[in-house]
Predict the structure of NAD(P)-binding protein.
Amino acid sequence: MAIKNVALIGASGTLGPSILTALNGSPYKTFVLNRASSKSKYPNSSVITIPDDLDVQEVTKRFNEESIDALILAISGAHVDAQKKLIDAAFASKVQLVMPAEFGSCDSADERSIALMPLYTNKRDVRDYLVSFEQKERNGRPKLTWTALVTGHFFDWGLENNLLRIDINKKIAHLADGGNVKFSASNLSFIAKAVVKVLGQPEGSKNTLLYVHSNYLTQLELLAAIEKETGEKFERVNESSAEVIKQHRPKMLEGDHEAYETTVAVWGIVSSDWIGSKKLANGLLGLEEEKVEEVVRRAVQNVKAA
């Protein structure tokens, strides 16, 4: 059965607005899931109001009322219990496909990432939960399927927010392991486009992790594009990724948010080479890499305007 009606939760987050825009421009009828106490407004979208506690029976009822076929979870990957409740409701209703909150910097199927950061244990936990439904019968309805997108760092957002360790405002580049490590990263609109492609359920996209990227480059290549766009030379700070992580990880585990961001930023650069270590799904989904010069131009303009 083809997917017609799609529900999205997390439409006001970092990635959610881009997904909502792409869905609204797609053939699918889109609904935004909004908790009862939320102040978020979506004037150009159909909204399904759900209980704050995500009561499974109530959410199932809402899904059935709107004949939801696919559920996209764009909330924080740390929200394990919330995702599991929504998955339970998806299974109990007529939802055919769930896309978990896998999007982001690192790969939760990578044992090194799981050992390094609790967040990726959470993402694996949700994915394992989805796997447990693959063979469960649903009273004659098709089995529940899932697809998780592994995107690498949010590329354009990361450029503007120093996630890629190059500070456009301060003109400083922190180069991990010499800055010559290839890494995969994805622009927000590209990820949103990938989500829409997955809804078409191409063969090979069900019950699997799909690795995608809009850009594949090194920090040095990125820095060269930024210096060309700005017409300015940046200070270069060479650093050992192992030493940076060794320094910041203990503080991250104690709840230091800045240490967490640094650890994720560095690890997402040195561990996310989808061409070198994974099977890139760009071809499967009909996606092409994007021009780094155009992304850099937009990012520099946005940073200067902020």
